[in-house]
Amino acid sequence: MDYLTATANKKYLMYISQNYSYAILRPLQAQILAHGGEVRWFLAGNEVNPDFLDDDEQQLHSIKDVHTWKPDATFAPANLIPTFIPGIKVAVFHGFDAHKRDTSGEKGHFAIRGCFDLYCTQGPNTTRRFAKSAIKHGHFKVAETGWPTLDPLFTAQADNPYASNDARPTLLICSTFSHRLTLAPRLYEQIKHFSKQGKWRILVQFHPKMPQEWVDKYKALSNENLTFVETDNVLPLLKAADVMLCDTSSVLQMFLLQNKPVVTYRTRQPFPHLLDVTQASEVEKNIDYALTYPQELMAAISNYSKELHPYTDGQSSLRVLNATNEFLHSDNNLKPKPLNLIRQFKMRKMLNYWGW
Questions:
Q1: CA-based torsion, 201, 205, 211, 212: positive or negative
Q2: What is the three-class DSSP state of 84?
Q3: Distance, CA of 252 to CA of 290 (rounded, Å)
């Protein structure tokens, strides 16, 4: 059933704690506004910069303000959200399962912390796991919608700032911040060589938590062959590149969904849809091989993408909004959430809120 018309006159809160969450939720915000709803933003903690709010985006500055405004639903690209704010709480995820740690059972990406009423999952390989947990716990529902973040990835972009008429292939280098997993220190000399070689046009973008030491070192490599990019929206970079070099980061999965190959350096789980290398000396030849788009590799990427995120219509935000409104207008018969008094106390302390 189409519940999009139910958006009119409803209130939707965007609850974020990281700068990259702006880009995650803005496609959803656009659909809410287009269907007559209202949107406000709540910025939790000190790692999210209010300067990134657009001029027409309105911020609520305290949980008391949130209670006064009374949202019907709150969207959070996070693992946690206060249960003491009004309305239903909807999880939309901050990324894909990057396989950085054990994710068997209800761990990592699949952890259930008793905060959300509705999980809007990205594709079959996450839906199955959350649906199983929903039956086990009974205090939330699951709807497979696709990830609203990716809507712009599957729509035309006329003014991509990273597009170029350069005839060389474009290599995008991304890395996680974890000391144990990052390629930044381990491939520095190799990438420095690439920046002088001029074989490819190179774009470099790191996780916002990357140690400043390595940010500075890679910035210093910038020249006519290599550009270091700092941005809260990685999608234009993904669209501009032909091949990616990465490690164990969920951004590589977003890149794969374009049917483009990824070379990984010592990734935690070297699946068949990746070209994984363990020695710096092997990186260049594997990038060259990836740029041939080999048939077996591309078939593996296609099969993986169908499980990860089969939606390429750019309409995932609409499905999230529809699922949220359906929840609001349905008798869901859910069990009460677990109290978890310790977590509630910590969140109240962090947000300086002691009311009801």
A1: positive
A2: coil
A3: 14
Specify whether the CB–CB gap between 145 and 121 falls below 8 A: yes
Helices 283-290 and 188-197 cross at an angle (nearest 10°) of 60
Instruction: For residue 335, report the phi and psi dihedrals to the nearest 5 degrees.
Output: -75, 155
Residue 192: CA atoms inside 13 Å, Cβ hemisphere, count? Answer: 10
Query: 3-state DSSP call for residue 203?
Result: strand
The 10s digit of each residue's pLDDT in 92-139 is 999 888 665 556 677 777 888 889 999 999 999 999 999 999 999 999
**Phi and psi dihedrals of 264, rounded to 5?**
-110, 150
User: pLDDT tens digit string along 186-217?
Assistant: 999 999 999 999 999 999 999 888 999 999 99
pLDDT at 225 over 70: yes
Do 182 and 266 touch, CB atoms closer than 8 A? Answer: no
Q: What is the DSSP string of 214-272?
A: HHHHHHTT-SSSEEE---S--HHHHHH-SEEEESS-THHHHHHTTT--EEEES-SS--T
Query: How far is residue 130's CA from residue 144's CA, in Å, rounded to a whole number?
Result: 10
Cα distance between residue 274 and residue 19, in whole Å: 28
Q: Please state the pTM of the whole predicted model.
A: 0.89
Tokens, residue 74: 């709150």
CA pair distance 261, 238, nearest whole angstrom: 11
CA distances, 214 to each of 94, 141, 186, 217, 219 (Å): 24, 42, 11, 5, 8
